[in-house]
What we know:
This protein is α+β, with helices and mostly antiparallel strands.
Amino acid sequence: MNKELIINSSGEGVEIALLEDKQLVELHYEHGQAQFAVGDLYLGKIKKLMPGLNAAFIDVGFEKDAFLHYTDLSPYFRSLLKFTQLSIQGNTEWNHDFGKFKNEEEIIKTGKITEVIQGKPEILVQILKEPISSKGPRLSCEISLPGRFVVVTPFNDVVAISRKIHSADERKRLQKIVESVKPKNFGVIVRTAAEGKNLAELQADIQDLEKTWTSIQINLKNSKPPQIILSEQDKTTSILRDLLSESFQKVIINDKKLATETREYIAKIAPEQEEIVQFHQTTNSVFDQYGVSKQVKASFGKTVNLEGGSYLIIEHTEALHVIDVNSGTRSGDVGQEQNALTTNLEAAKEIARQLRLRDLGGIIIVDFIDMKLPENRKRLYEAMEEFMQHDRAKHTVLPISKFGLLQITRQRLRPELKISTTEVCPSCSGTGKIGPSILITDEIGKDFKYLVNQGHRSLELHVHPILAAFLTKGRFFNSIVWKWYWTYKAKVKIISDANSPITHYHFIDRKTEEMIKL
Length: 518
């Protein structure tokens, strides 16, 4: 599978598109002042304990207090609380020697939050879920610092290996390496990307995360809540950190500075792939150039059309997402059962993509076309699981019920990505009426005459292709453009713009390359 990362940087932020075999599968938006992103560390202050919920509300600077449940406190909560208080005071006991720290008593899984937290202390927390709808962020005290090959979890000595590494010998090798190089009182989760990596690569990754932990302590010194202590990496580097592999063919960026920074980051984590970063220099939109814009328009909205003529209807309610599979114009001579299976398999592949692309979370109910044969329902279920394997979010797929419904639960970490694919008509502004189209060339001619009289002698006229064809039609000296030339003694270059509304137009001064306001 060939992967490409297309990055469009603008004044409003950064748009990131992940393509797999030229097909858009993930879309991320990173705004310049984005806060409360998953993974960010904050120094918060407990505002209210809720014994009935066995939870606490924490002030981290968001308009609504964040939510911290007892089950997210971590067994090492007392150690984290002590670490936070000593670091705020600037205690030197912690500096660069984590082995000196003695773990406090672990908390039990079935305890009460009022037994663990007294008063309203300051505490280091990590964003577990971004603010969604009317809810504030959800927090965790199980601090984790992700690297490329490992994830470090302070205050415990456990080494865990990703379940996706199936070889017993490889698991033992990685366990032995990590245990020999990890700092004391640090747990390490070995990621799937670590498979086949040597001692030096794993040790370098752990040492980088150890430095990050030290910087957290430094940032905590003299801090007052609410305050951000450590921000997660920007989306570009975090995606590359998690996904970069030999299957990545290109990282294309339209911002020179960002391209340089990304190239430096890849040179650090995978020097052999440094050359995959390319700077997009042409004036064309990078999303248009690589077909991202068109795929976005085709993939979002209530209805999603599939290649075989079938289509999906995607509805959102407060409690869950519902996806209905319709056969549409698909027909075949193979029989109703086989036709239903073919349609459902095509729909399953697209549904797996839609879940990633829109970042749908919570409960998803899929109403597939009814199939009578149990073996076909089993085949569809297995195919759905296979299509979901590339999804990084935690998810569960249940077998198809006797009603033909398939249930999926998918981890919800951030708000669903919603993009409106409908547009207000720029010609009528939604009224359903426009001025008389027969007069459009007269209006353009009057504006052209005015600009020529104002001293503009080198102009471009940007219009819809249909209008461009009308202005230039006819023999060499019979077109409207040439009539303007003979009348006003000035030339205008017609530029065909497919994105322009059919009755709209604008002039650009070719010397200054600026649009002229009329």
